[in-house]
Amino acid sequence: METEKRIISALAFKLGIAGLIPFVVLAGLGFTMESSYRDIIIFSLLAYGASICSFLGAIHWGLTMRDKNLDKLSLIWGVIPSLIGWISLLIEPTLGLLLITALLWICLFIDTKRYPKYDLAHWLPMRLLLTIVASCACLLSTNY
């Protein structure tokens, strides 16, 4: 029996790529703008990274809410990226960017374990691409 190959929609892919715009633009601005603007640029990048991590956690709440069996671990995991993202805004900016970078990769790791349970493994290649670009933008921004 042949398995159906599932793909994500073109709109979802385009929106995912569009979600990278703030990461790439802010990382680029940090290298091109006067140093007096760098604090606001880094804070903007941290805030955007924290909001994206919150979104990644919230996906797990949505999947659990849709499922008939309440998955306590998914609910717990679903709030952790928000809390860690918030902490990234409170610590020294370079450490915050490193924390967001690590959190993006941890979110991807968790998703690789959880998405197949919900028949969503076909989203993982795009998630990998988005994680690579977003985390590179954060890492590059630690070098201003």
Descriptive keywords:
144 residues; mainly alpha; 6 helices; 75% helix; globular
Task: Explain what the structure shows.
This protein has six helices and no strands. The longest helix has 29 residues, at 38-66. The chain has helices spanning 10-18, 21-32, 38-66, 72-90, 93-114, 124-140. α2 (21-32) packs antiparallel against α3. The chain has 144 residues and is an all-alpha fold. It is 75% helix and 0% strand. The chain has a domain at 44-143. The mean pLDDT is 94.
Rg calc = 16 Å
Poorly predicted sequence stretches spanning 5 or more consecutive residues: none
Indicate the proportion of strand residues. under 5%
The count of DSSP E runs of length 2 or more, i.e. the number of strands, is: 0
Mean pLDDT: 94
**Tell me, what's the shape?**
globular
Query: How many DSSP H or I helices?
Result: 6
H-E string: HHHHHH
Briefly summarize what is shown.
The chain has helices at 10-18, 21-32, 38-66, 72-90, 93-114, 124-140. It has 144 residues and is mostly helical. The model has no long low-confidence stretch (mean pLDDT 94).
Q: Topology of this protein?
A:
Layout: H1 10-18, H2 21-32, H3 38-66, H4 72-90, H5 93-114, H6 124-140
Helix pairs in contact: 2-3, 2-6, 3-4, 3-5, 4-5, 5-6
